[in-house]
């Protein structure tokens, strides 16, 4: 089968053996924002035409390709959901040579009924489910919009999105905090200083301004401002998740190396253990959904 | 005497009688960012030359004119501080015809020693001190960077800055949240929905993303997104201040009408009473510092 993770700014296709082993892969920067109106069939053919010609007939797609801005909109599926519920809610896309199926995004609601959404990450979570089994687990997928999910009984029971990465970017690029920043080599000490500040308690709207106060008073180097701010924001993210329910075991962490290293530092500061996972879990998740389907 | 509040983007000069009554005023958009290098003496002369010619000889200036980007840098004074401490820490600016004195900004440190800074607002707080006397009081000056101050014994004992207004602006203009926003007439119901969400508890980094989730699922109108986001952010600001110590009496509120109305709505939702004050308190504060001086 073929598994595709087609996001806003990237395209990843995997040719998968039974069981989910990766036989071949195609990666490009051809995210859905680069696709012209009506251009999805041609873009898909250009990327995986050779595999289809060699006889592959099942294609599972996940990510923003299933959003309103994508190829076809796949409705959101409410949590709790596992591979079986997801496989039962796939959206077909007509295609002359293959069976194309879109993986739905997920929604989760908190105790007050306020919703959250994900699209693409559900497939990575399913990939981790395959590894972790039915015991309760807390998962963290750091990124522009970090996702934290609680798994239990082989299903994703609920999740939250944390806007940490995007907030850091807009504050550095567009707010007064950016004026004091100079590029630096990266300082774990300044990052941990920010994490500790968040862990002490207090509101983010005040503490984020402290980045500027420290700089104005010469108590934070310009080249360490970004590190401190990152620590402060990731610290607030971790604090909120822990207050919502501390995990019994390790936090399961999967994502880009640089970001996972920082999250691991923050976890240590909060007294949390963690376990790193392969970043290719989306491929495993796609294979697992397909298995449930067949 | 003459009192001047010279900020980043605005200039306000008052000709004041003994006791602080405003005899005349000059206001313009000539904030310090509009002043060319070395242009402060000429800008001042253009604005208040006629008053100087009529015999005024004492000029007190506050605001960003005393910052590193201003005319002369006035050092920060640590809290607790009242009119006497501030009057004893004025920075003179040489001038051929008048005695020019810069009001210092203030710093405050929390229990962990992390600093905060203000420049310009200290003068408004002194103006409120004149009205409120020595009893403990909690003051709120809403704005791009809202200031909350605790007064006691006729001095400003400590304060915090909340980056609420600027965060709302950068999120609407530069983050993914802005994509779902359409202009609207303003909805108090949507604003209060955001305030209540914040009051329930939970982290801001997650709840701010909820603005998008609600929009994607059709549970928040595009024309009400800004109202909801404002309520959420102001709600988090008020929650953090209340958690840091709820006031025994009303919150004393001074600032622009539109913003004060929203803050008053949020206070009601938190069960706080409030009292509105004249937005011209900077003039009274400048007069009070000058009285202490003479």
Automatic annotation (TrEMBL), chains A, B:
GO terms for molecular function: 2-dehydro-3-deoxygalactonokinase activity. It comes from the Bacteria. Gene3D superfamilies: 2-keto-3-deoxy-galactonokinase, C-terminal domain, 2-keto-3-deoxy-galactonokinase, substrate binding domain. InterPro entries: DGOK (IPR007729), DGOK_C (IPR042257), DGOK_N (IPR042258). GO terms for biological process: D-galactonate catabolic process. This is 2-dehydro-3-deoxygalactonokinase. It comes from Siccirubricoccus deserti.
């Amino acid at each position: 089968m073929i598994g595709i993770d087609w996001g806003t700014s990237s395209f990843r296709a995997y040719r998968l053996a039974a069981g989910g082993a990766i036989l071949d892969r195609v990666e490009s920067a051809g995210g859905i924002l680069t696709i012209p109106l009506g251009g999805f069939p041609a873009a898909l053919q250009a990327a995986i035409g050779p595999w289809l010609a060699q006889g592959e007939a099942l294609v599972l797609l996940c990510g923003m390709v299933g959003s309103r801005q994508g190829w076809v909109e796949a409705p959101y599926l409410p949590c709790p959901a596992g591979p079986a519920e997801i496989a039962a809610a796939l959206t077909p896309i007509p295609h002359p040579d293959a069976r194309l199926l879109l993986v739905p995004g997920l929604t989760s609601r908190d105790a007050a009924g306020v919703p959250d959404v994900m699209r693409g990450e559900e497939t990575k979570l399913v990939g981790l489910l395959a590894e972790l089994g039915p015991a309760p687990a807390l998962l963290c997928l750091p990124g522009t919009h970090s996702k934290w999910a609680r798994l239990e009984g082989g299903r994703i029971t609920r999740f939250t999105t944390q806007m940490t990465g995007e907030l850091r970017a807009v504050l550095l690029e567009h707010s007064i905090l950016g004026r004091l920043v100079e590029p630096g080599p990266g300082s774990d000490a300044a990052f941990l200083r920010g994490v500790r500040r968040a862990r002490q308690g207090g509101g983010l709207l005040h503490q984020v301004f402290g980045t500027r106060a420290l700089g104005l008073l010469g108590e934070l180097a310009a080249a360490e401002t970004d590190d401190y701010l990152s620590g402060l924001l990731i610290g607030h993210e971790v604090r909120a998740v822990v207050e919502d329910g501390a995990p019994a075991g390790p936090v399961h962490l999967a994502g880009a190396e640089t970001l996972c290293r920082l999250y691991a530092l923050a976890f240590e500061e909060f007294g949390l253990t963690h376990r790193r996972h392969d970043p290719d879990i989306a491929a495993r998740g796609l294979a697992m959904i397909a298995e449930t389907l067949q």
